[in-house]
Amino acid sequence: MNDEYFMQQALKEARKAQEKGEVPIGAVVVMNSQIIGRGFNQVEMLNDCTAHAEMIALTAAFNYLGAKYLMEATLYVTLEPCVMCAGALYWSKIGRIVYAAPDEKNGYRRVTGDKTPFHPKTKVESGICGEESLKMVKDFFAARRK
After folding, report:
1. Which residues pair with 96 in a beta bridge?
2. d(CA 112, CA 139)
3. Of residues 13, 22, 54, 80, which has the active-site annotation?
4. pLDDT, tens digit, 9 for 90 and up, residues 54-103
5. How far apart are CA 52 and CA 5, in angstroms?
6. Which secondary structure element, helix H or strand E, spans residue 38, and what is its range?
7. Interatomic CA distance for residues 140 and 118, integer angstroms
8. Cα(76)–Cα(74) distance, rounded to whole angstroms?
9. Cα 99 to Cα 17: distance, rounded to the nearest angstrom
10. Looking at CB atoms within 10 Å, which of 35, 47, 107, 140 has the fewest?
11. Do residues 62 and 39 lie in contact, with contact meaning Cβ atoms separated by under 8 Å?
12. Would you say 57 and 25 are in contact if contact means Cβ atoms under 8 Å apart?
């Protein structure tokens, strides 16, 4: 199992969001090659602007471990986290974040620029399955504009 495998799992979560009329973003938290948390956007379903895929996956991982820190874990998410999610990821002390595609409008980099909002020990990577993720989001919004 590698980064692409786990990003494909996050994309499966994104498809669940899409099927429910949500913005298609998905996330999984992985530790020791095992998924310990999954999430997909549920903002509309829960009528909760904080119900992002990352937040739901983090909560599932915290509950699974019975702990509030994820220093040995990796988050795979299909789109660059927003500032809110970046804050939660900072506090989780997650070891690694892998996101598929940048989010020019709402991603954390729009606010922070080159400065990382994550814990100093957190490693960040991007680009794995990025085209597939971006296409899913663009297709979702294009369909809504019709």
Report:
1. 74, 123
2. 28
3. 54
4. 999 999 999 999 999 999 999 999 999 999 999 999 999 999 999 999 99
5. 22
6. strand 34-40
7. 29
8. 6
9. 17
10. 47
11. no
12. no
Name the token pair of 33: 């090659």
Cα of 136 vs its chain's centroid, Å:
14
**pLDDT of 14-32, one tens digit each?**
999 999 999 999 999 999 9
Q: Is 54 a catalytic residue?
A: yes
User: Both tokens of residue 96?
Assistant: 């690694």
**Rounded Cα distance, 20 and 24, in Å:** 9
Q: How many residues does the chain have?
A: 146
> What count of other Cβ atoms lies within 10 Å of the Cβ of residue 133?
27
Report how far residue 35's alpha carbon sits from residue 3's, in angstroms, rounded to the nearest whole number. Answer: 12
Locate tokens 């909002």: which residue?
117
Residues 6+ apart with CB under 8 A from 112: 83, 86
Of 93, 146, 144, residue with least CA distance to 123: 93
Structure tokens at 81: 């986290």
Structural contact between residues 132 and 14, judged by C-beta atoms closer than 8 angstroms: no
